[in-house]
Amino acid sequence: MNTKAIAWFDGLMTFLNYATLVFFGFVEEFFTHWLFPKKKATASQYYAPLVKDFDDFFNRRMFHRVHDCWNRPISSRPGAWIDVLDRKFETDPAQYKAAGAHTLSFTGETVRALNLASYNYLGFADNEESCNKAVIQSLRQYGASTCSARTSFGQTAVHKELEELVARFIGKESAFVFGMGFATNSTTIPALAGKGDLIISDSLNHASIIIGARGSAARIKVFKHDDMKHLEKVIRESIAEGQPRTHRPWKKIIILVEGIYSMEGEILNLPDIIALKKKYKCYLYVDEAHSVGALGRTGGGVVQYHGLDPKDVDILMGTFTKSFASVGGYIAGDKDVISHLKSSAWGSLYANSLSTPCAQQIISAMRVVTGEDGTDIGKQKINSLRENSNYFRRRLNEMGFQVYGSEDSPVVPVMIYNPGKVAGFSRECLARNIAVVVVGYPATALMEARVRFCLSSAHTIEDLEEALQVIGEVGDLAMIKYGKKLGLDTKSKKKSSSKKIQ
């Protein structure tokens, strides 16, 4: 992983770029309010604002100028190649004035592009014959939805089979599936932590984890990302100080982390986390949304990747939207814990059950991954994903880009920094038939915008070479090959672990 640094000149130019945007944005807003004052105050103006002032300003004056680079609709499967619906900014003054922002309209054309933007890690988003037949049969038998929560009439034999398969696949006693990945975290954590408990969360955890922690009655502390020394310091001080005011011991302490950090592409340092967890008698909750199916000898996730015992992790959470081409998420743990969540988690009591055909898609895909279908297709997919990820990362390093993340991670972020270059990079790649995802504030720090490539086992070496050629050309055009400026070592210091699985 390359060092997280930026050359002083590029950092200064990024800062000046944002300063210029903010300055002219405030000037424009000042004269807009001065020349066109509101005629009469309304009652709604006396309510507290629903959003932060700067976030609202950022959306109005910065994001909407370049929002064609985000949320691009497609008209095909999110496979290795996709059809992107072409859009352009509205030029009709009447429509622009009515919308009050930079509006986009469809041109009626599509762009056939190589997909480096979707979480199609194992290629199941393509037309998989191994899954289709069972999914269609499930749709005909059960319909598209149960129209009920699991606690009412949302339980079918397919859901039960899926939970048994997930528990076996993860290596836990029991599992419970939810209809939405985001809701798996946000509705489960409040059921696990309450008053008198302490949550210690990684500073770069996903928004669903943050919302889940805030939705609980527990106290929350944050430790520096992947900093084991700081984590231990936070744990030690928390145990020594106890609860606020009363200084009573915490009822329990829960550490929340992720298997692969989606914006950083980093794999969790799980062995050290488990060592601290055992040393201080804490509980450990690991979000494997991006690591399950993508890491490990048989796709078992970050626990299997490090060769550890799943019993050392109290709660294993994951989603089915990345590696298994479906929807929803799961929580895996001891039987008593899962039984408690079924009767108390909001996602279990109030949300609709996971769609039965979607559950069947997960079952079919997971059987392929584990080899229960009698083939070695799953093994080939996992090998291909690892090889593609490491090859792509190595080539980007050799080309002089500043690449974040860990070896073997299918998420490969490349730093762009400058907001003008973010939009330019995205547009130029699409113009050359490469679909990418650029990421900026508030998903990252304001000064740390990047492009995030997502690799898939469905990509061929020819696909990746075509993409790398385009990315290299656009990188030169945008002048974002910061690795050369920083003098980073582009040679691989660590021997690639992308060997064939025996």
Can you lay out the helices and strands and say which pair or pack?
Layout: H1 8-35, H2 53-61, E1 81-89, H3 93-99, E2 104-115, H4 129-142, H5 157-170, E3 174-178, H6 181-192, E4 198-202, H7 207-215, E5 219-223, H8 228-241, E6 253-258, E7 260-261, E8 266-267, H9 270-279, E9 283-287, H10 302-305, E10 315-319, E11 329-333, H11 335-344, H12 346-349, H13 356-370, H14 377-399, E12 411-417, H15 419-431, E13 434-435, E14 437-439, E15 449-454, H16 461-478, H17 482-486
Parallel strand pairs: 2-13, 4-5, 4-6, 6-9, 9-10
Antiparallel strand pairs: 1-2, 3-11, 7-8, 10-11, 12-15, 14-15
Helix pairs in contact: 4-13, 5-13, 6-7, 13-14, 14-16, 15-16
Annotated CATH homologous superfamily of the largest domain: Type I PLP-dependent aspartate aminotransferase-like (Major domain)
Task: Sketch the major β-sheet.
Answer: 7 strands, mixed
Mean pLDDT: 89
| Largest sheet strand order | 3-11-10-9-6-4-5
- CATH fold naming of the largest domain: Aspartate Aminotransferase, domain 2
Q: Determine and state the CATH class of the largest domain.
A: Alpha Beta
* Count of alpha/pi helices: 17
Share in helix: 40-55%
How would you sum up the global shape?
globular
Percent range for β-strand residues? 15-25%
N- to C-terminal separation? 27 Å
Low-confidence stretches: 492-502
Count of domain modules:
2
Structural class: alpha/beta
Rounded radius of gyration (Å): 24 Å
> How many runs of DSSP E, i.e. beta strands?
15
Assigned CATH architecture of the largest domain = 3-Layer(aba) Sandwich
